[in-house]
Specification:
354 residues, alpha+beta, Ribosomal Protein S8, Chain: A, domain 1, Cyclic Phosphodiesterase, Chain: A, 2 domains, 8 helices, elongated, RNA binding, KH_dom, K Homology domain-containing protein, KH-I_ASCC1, RNA-binding
């Protein structure tokens, strides 16, 4: 079925067909072969794409592309093999800055189609390995309002008093109250330029989000807890439920619209049809690393390394626990593994609903 229905990747409005053919290994990662499909996905792999704007020179054609330096190695390949192969197969020359130096990869060649072919192959290769990079930022709604923090600390105190005898339940698995949040989606922003691009896109979303809620803060209620696996006796994460106080779906609409904009711009990979609106309150990852963030609903990157705890009594006694109400008035681009003066994540960008 993967052959009949290959994965399609959208890069800058162009569609690539991904073929699952392993070619070589580079630092324990697989390079994969890709073919460019263009408007008609039945076309051959390296058909030229007229959407590229090439610079004509005395010796032929030239195209410069911005690429984060952490991705250079995937274009170079082990002992330069990937770069040599691309140059040989497309009859082009590929110039790559020194490792660690932000700059542009420049493709030159005598034939326009050859340069286009090389560029499309580089772009898809970059996109493939970009998806394997750990996320650096995430879109978030802060839940660390003073009342919510106070009630969360009370919840923690009562759970430890009443459920500490249950397997795996101790203080180390509770979220830092100052970092209570909803993760809307994760971002791998690999250069200052990409961070700036994400911030600009967030600013462009402000007007449409204000229209959804009428240009004022959105009253939210945080009440109830839930889990997402099948056995409450073996849970690794517990979530607080968050919803609009008026019962509307405005919070969901805002989150889904943000994801749609960032996915369309190529800054985010879609993980769910709809954003899962849950705030992590207990997570066994915190036991090993108090700074570990919850990666939305899919934060099970190392299931074999995860521990579980028995949440049956917690759910029975605190399943309807009310953490309080507050007015949501901002969306943040939060930096992973960071802390600002308030104790929340440092924001690279923010928009307000006012």
């Amino acid at each position: 079925m993967e052959v009949l229905r290959p994965t399609l990747i959208n890069i800058n409005g162009r569609i690539y067909r991904k073929n699952f053919i392993k070619e070589q290994h580079y630092q324990d990662e697989d390079e994969e072969d890709f073919s460019y499909a263009g408007p008609d996905t039945t076309q051959s792999g390296d058909e030229p794409c007229d959407t590229l704007s090439l610079e004509q020179t005395e010796k032929g054609y030239r195209y410069a592309m911005d690429v984060p330096c952490v991705l250079y190695k995937y274009i170079i390949g082990k002992k330069g093999e990937t770069k040599k192969r691309l140059e040989s197969e497309t009859r082009t020359s590929i110039s790559i800055p020194k490792q660690g130096v932000e700059g542009q990869i420049v493709v030159t060649g005598q034939q326009k189609g050859a340069v286009m072919s090389a560029v499309t192959r580089i772009e898809v290769l970059i996109e493939s390995f970009r998806r394997k990079q750990p996320f650096t930022h995430f879109l978030s709604f802060a839940l660390n309002h003073a009342q919510i923090q106070e009630r969360f600390l009370k919840f923690k105190e009562e759970v430890l008093e009443q459920c500490s005898e249950d397997h795996g339940v101790d203080s180390s698995i509770f979220q830092n109250p100052a970092k209570l949040h909803l993760t809307i989606g994760t971002l791998a922003l690999l250069s200052d330029q990409e961070v700036n691009r994400a911030c600009e896109l967030l600013q462009q979303c402000q007007e449409s989000l204000q229209d959804i809620i009428g240009g004022k803060p959105l009253p939210l209620e945080v009440a109830g807890i839930e889990y997402m696996n099948d056995d409450p006796a073996m849970v690794d994460v517990l979530y607080a439920k968050v919803q609009a106080k008026d019962g509307s779906d405005k919070l969901q609409v805002i989150a889904d619209q943000l994801v749609e904009r960032f996915v369309t711009a190529g800054l985010m990979v879609r993980e769910w049809d709809r954003v899962k609106l849950h705030g992590t309150i207990m997570n066994t990852l915190f036991r090993k690393d108090p700074s570990a963030e919850d990666k939305g609903g899919s934060g099970r990157l190392n299931m074999k390394d995860r521990e579980s705890f028995d949440a049956r009594n917690v759910l029975k006694k605190f399943g309807t626990y009310r953490f309080g109400e507050f007015e949501l008035n901002a969306v943040h681009i939060s930096q992973r593994f960071s802390t600002d003066c308030s104790g929340y994540y440092t924001s690279s960008g923010v928009i307000n609903f006012l």
